[in-house]
C-alpha cells in the first residue's frame, strides 16, 4: 500500500534514502517495558536511531536519542521484567520523563530526519518490531500525542531480515553472524539494543547488491 503521508514532514526534495524505501524513513526503535502486554504494562525506556545514507548510497546509523520513561498512571510492572532489563526505577540518575515528554524528545529528531530526506513518514525498524510498535502506539494513545511520525502499522523487522540473510533470528546471534560485536552485559538497554539492531539493519541492506526500479 502507499505510505500514509504527513503533510508537515515532506518539505525537502526526496533524497536517495527516501527513494530507496518509497518515501519511508527507516528509524530503528527499541523499548524496554514492564512486561509483554502493551495494553497494561508500562513503557520504561525508549531509544530511536534514524538511518542515514552516504554519498556512495550506503546506509549508516544516525544519532541515537533516548529517554527513560516514568510509568504511566494505571500501567503495571512485572518484577520479572526488571530482573531481565536490570532497570532500577528508583535510581537517582535515571532522570525519567513522563510519557508525553519522552515521546516529544524522541519524535523530534525523527521528524527532523524525515524533513531532511523528504520522507513522507518514518517506518519503525526493530527486532520483533511489532512489539516495539505496539508499546509505542499505546504510549501515543495514552498521552494523546498528535504528532507521531511513525506509520501506524507497517514495520521493517530485523528478525525476518536476519533469518533470510544469516539463518539467525535471535538478535545476539544475528549480530555475530553479521560480523558485528555483541556485549551481553549491555543487552536490554534501549540504547545498546537500538545501536546493534541499527547496525544489523544497515549491514543487511548494504549487502543487497541490486534494487529493482521504482514502479
What's the average pLDDT? 92
Q: Gyration radius, to the nearest Å?
A: 17 Å
Quickly give the structural class. Answer: alpha/beta
Biggest β-sheet strands, sense, barrel: 6 strands, mixed
Per DSSP E runs of 2 or more residues, the count of β-strands stands at 6
Tell me the series of helices and strands, N- to C-terminal: HEEEEHHEHEHHH
Helix content: 25-40%
- Please, how many helices? 7
Strand content: 15-25%
Given as residue ranges, the uncertain stretches (5+ residues, pLDDT < 50) are none
The coarse overall form would be globular
Spatial separation of the terminal alpha carbons? 12 Å
Task: Give a structural overview.
The protein is α/β, with parallel strands linked by helices and 215 residues long. The chain has seven helices and six strands; from the N terminus they run H-E-E-E-E-H-H-E-H-E-H-H-H. The protein has helices spanning 16-20, 79-85, 99-117, 129-143, 158-166, 171-177, 190-207; strands at residues 24-33, 43-53, 59-61, 65-68, 121-126, 150-157. Strands 1, 2, 3, 4, 5 and 6 form a six-stranded mixed sheet that branches. Helix 5 crosses helix 7. The two termini are 12 Å apart. The mean pLDDT is 92.
Amino acid at each position: 500500500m502507499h505510505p500514509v503521508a504527513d503533510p508537515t514532514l515532506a518539505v525537502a526534495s526526496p533524497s536517495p534514502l527516501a527513494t530507496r524505501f518509497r518515501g519511508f524513513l527507516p528509524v530503528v526503535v527499541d523499548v524496554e517495558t514492564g512486561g509483554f502486554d502493551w495494553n497494561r504494562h508500562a513503557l520504561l525506556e525508549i531509544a530511536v536511531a534514524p538511518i542515514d545514507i552516504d554519498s556512495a548510497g550506503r546506509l549508516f546509523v544516525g544519532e541515537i536519542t533516548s529517554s527513560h520513561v516514568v510509568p504511566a498512571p494505571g500501567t503495571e510492572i512485572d518484577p520479572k521484567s526488571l530482573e531481565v532489563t536490570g532497570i532500577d526505577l528508583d535510581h537517582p540518575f535515571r532522570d525519567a520523563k513522563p510519557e508525553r515528554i519522552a515521546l516529544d524528545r524522541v519524535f523530534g529528531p525523527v521528524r527532523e530526519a524525515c524533513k531532511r530526506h523528504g520522507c513522507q513518514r518514518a517506518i519503525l525498524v526493530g527486532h520483533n518490531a511489532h512489539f516495539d510498535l505496539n508499546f509505542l502506539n499505546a504510549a501515543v494513545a495514552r498521552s494523546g500525542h498528535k504528532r507521531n511520525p511513525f506509520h501506524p502499522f507497517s514495520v521493517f523487522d530485523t528478525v525476518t531480515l536476519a533469518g533470510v540473510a544469516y539463518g539467525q533470528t535471535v538478535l545476539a546471534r544475528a549480530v555475530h553472524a553479521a560480523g558485528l560485536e555483541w556485549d551481553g552485559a549491555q543487552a536490554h538497554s534501549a540504547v545498546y539494543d537500538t545501536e546493534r539492531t541499527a547496525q544489523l539493519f544497515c549491514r543487511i541492506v548494504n549487502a543487497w547488491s541490486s534494487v529493482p526500479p521504482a514502479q
